[in-house]
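subagent[fold] <- orchestrator: predict structure for attached chain, return C-alpha cells only, no commentary.
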Amino acid sequence: MAYDFDTEVNRRDTGSLKWDIKENELPMWVADMDFMTAPEIINAVSEKAGHGVYGYSVLTESWYAAYMNWWRRRHHLQMEKDWLMFCSGVIPAISSIVRKLTAAGEKILIQTPVYNHFFNAIENNGRQVLENPLQYKQGQYEIDFEDLEQKLSDPRTSMMILCNPHNPVGRLWDRETLALIGSLCHRHHVIVVSDEIHCDLTEPGTEYVPFAAASDLCRENSITCLAPTKAFNLAGLMTAAVMVPDAQLCRRVRQGLNTDEVAEPNFFAAAAAEAAFLKGEAWLDELRSCIFAGRKFAAEFLGENLPQVTVVPAKATYLLWLDCRKITDDSKKLAGWIRQNTGLYVMAGRYYGRSGEGFLRVNIACPRRVLKDGMERLVKGVLTYQDNRQT
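subagent[fold] -> orchestrator:
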C-alpha cells in the first residue's frame, strides 16, 4: 500500500471524545477512525493554517465543484450547484430540517435499529418517533414494506429519515428498494431526508446508490445530507453539505439552515472537504481495502473463538453489528460487563432502537494490532459474562 494504516496514533490527552477514557480502556464505540487522514488533506489544512489570519469564510466555486464532480464520477449522480448548501454537520442539518419542515407533534419515521442521534433530532424537537423496524432474517436485514406503507399512510407522518447506507447494520440499499421507498413516500406526501454520510465506505467492488438517483420521484421529494467526515476522518472539522434538487424545497431548507446558524463554514471546513474530494481518492480506495480486510479478520477471529456471537454481514461502514442474542437479550448489561472487566468500550444495540436489543456495535477502523486487541478483549468479556451468569 502507498498509504500507512498500521501506525498507531496516540489520541489520549488530545481532547478526543473517543479517547477520553481510563488508561486501561480501549474505545471502539463512537464512529470515528483511529487512522490519520489522507496526507493530501493534512497538507491542505496545514497550508490553510499557515496563512495565519483566521477570519470569516465563504464558499468558493471549487467547493461546489468538488462535491459535484465527486458524486458524478464516483456515484453517477449529476448535481447542480443550486442544489447544494453548506452545513456544519449532518445531524445539525437533520435537526434543522425537522424543526423547519415539520410541526410539533407530527410523526417522523425511522428504520430501526438505526443511528441513535436520529431519535434525538426527533424527540428533542417535540416530534414523535415512528419506528419501521427492519426485519432480520437469515443474517440479512430487509424492509417490512407492508408496515412501512401502513405507517407512511398515517396523516400525522410528515417525514422519513432514511439511512443510506444503513448505520449500524451496514446494509447497502439497492436502486429498486430505494425507488419503492420513494414511490410510497410520494404517494403519502412524506418528505424523505436521506443521511448518506457513510456512502464512501463500501466494500471494494461495490458502490452505493444515492437516494436521489433512484428515480425521478426520489429526486424531487428528497433532502440528502452528505459529508466527507466519516470516509476521511474529518468529523472534528464540522463540514457537510445538504443537497435538495426541488427548488421550492431547497429554499425552505436553505432558509432553515441559515436561521438556525449552521450554514457558515469555519476557516478549515471547505478546504478540508475540497482536498478530500479532489485529492483523496487513492487514499480512500486503500482505506476501504484495509477496513474490509479488518472486517474479514474480525469475523474469522470471532468465528473461531466466539461462535455463539454472529457477525452480521455488511457491505458498508467500518462498524461490526454483532448478534449476541444467544448470550443475552440485555445488550446494555453485556456492554457494561465487557467494559468493566476488559476495558473494551463498545455500544449496546439498545441505543439504536428496541430491535437492536441483544446486539453490539463495534468500530473496527483502527490498525490491525489494535483490532486484534479489541477482538481478544471482546472474546474474554463475553466468555466471562457467560461464566458469571452460570454461577
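orchestrator: received. Logging for downstream: The mean pLDDT is 97. The longest strand covers residues 157-163.
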